[in-house]
Amino acid sequence: MRLHALVSTLAVAALANVAALGNTTSGTADLPDDFSELRAKDARIQRLGYTLAAGNAPYCSVTRPSLGLMLHDIAVYEEDGRLRSALGLTGDIAVQVVVPGSPAVGVLTPDMTIASIEDTAISDIPFEEKRKWSRMTELNALLDQSLDKDGSVTLGLQNGRTVELKGTPACATRFEVGGIGKRAVADGERVVIGNKFPGLAYDDPELAAVMAHELAHNVLGHRALLDAQGRGRKLVRATEREADRLAPWLLANAGFEPEAALRFMQTWGPDHSGGWLLRKRTHDGWDERAEMIAAEAALVRAHLEADGTADWKTLFRREVETQKP
């Protein structure tokens, strides 16, 4: 399932109170509470996603340089320009998040207006009212194309200055907060965390475990596998087991304890046995999943203690290669 159409749902709902801004100047104290909450969620998901993707780059078969940068389109949120004014912007496309420790640090800051990406002016890409997400999708594609070409991208700022950013190696997955409620999903290219996902209330290691589970689906190619072979119950269950088991490896390479995946399942499972991770018969019971995760986390821990590495590309045991749908 493609998720582009759902992304704008969150943005529109989150800024229903923009009209209350009045004549303000840039600053978080002047922003609608819902927008500030969205920005905080974006910043956290980008930080954890960047750490997971960059930490596992040596083992991912498909990588793309990452800037640790998230842009957003203000036109998605409003029509009257008040939020843009409150943020101090001179255009619609701006910096939403700069991840600490990333290549964008020291070069860009939140609420800088972006005028161009490479040779494409933002003004040359129309905003479509019926497809509010489409302009940002096109701009993200331009960023990816440039990064895939030579590992860098040139951005034009509204003041006429240009900056060049060189990305750092990362697994080729984009992380987003989306208007999909209490779910978290992976589509082969992105990991989308629902704006109301309960795991957002967890500590970083446990939220990172959720994201690692979804990233595992992408790096193991589950979407393409299911598209090719069908979504039979046995095959879906095998992909879910793989994602559960790979999560501790991904966490370890991002600097988290591999046991965080187990803590997440032990916290989540008893109260959500009929929900996102545990629906129908395509998933094992939460207690069975916890046992598998515990065994895998112990294996990861043993390798970390032996040689300081968690090389899942070499050591992880696949389940789906001979699994029939």
What does this structure look like?
It is a single chain. This protein has 325 residues and is an alpha+beta fold. The protein has 2 domains: 4-166, Roll (Pdz3 Domain); 202-315, no CATH class. The protein is 42% helix and 13% strand. It has 10 helices and 9 strands. It has helices at 4-14, 33-55, 82-86, 134-150, 204-219, 222-229, 233-253, 260-268, 286-307, 312-315, and strands at 69-73, 93-98, 114-117, 120-121, 152-157, 162-166, 174-178, 184-186, 190-194. Helix 8 packs antiparallel against helix 9. The model is unreliable at 1-28 and 275-279 (pLDDT under 50).
Largest sheet: 4 strands, antiparallel
CATH topology of the largest domain: Pdz3 Domain
Under the CATH scheme, the architecture of the largest domain is: Roll
N-end to C-end Cα span: 19 Å
Q: Tell me the count of domains.
A: 2
Tell me the name of the CATH class of the largest domain: Mainly Beta
Inertia-based shape: globular
Helix share, percent: 40-55%
**Which spans of ≥5 residues are poorly predicted at pLDDT below 50?**
1-28, 275-279
CATH superfamily of the largest domain: PDZ domain
Task: Report the strand count.
Answer: 9
Gyration radius, in Å: 20 Å
Our estimate of the beta-strand percent is 5-15%
Average pLDDT, rounded to a whole number, is 88
Question: What structural class do the secondary elements suggest?
Answer: alpha+beta
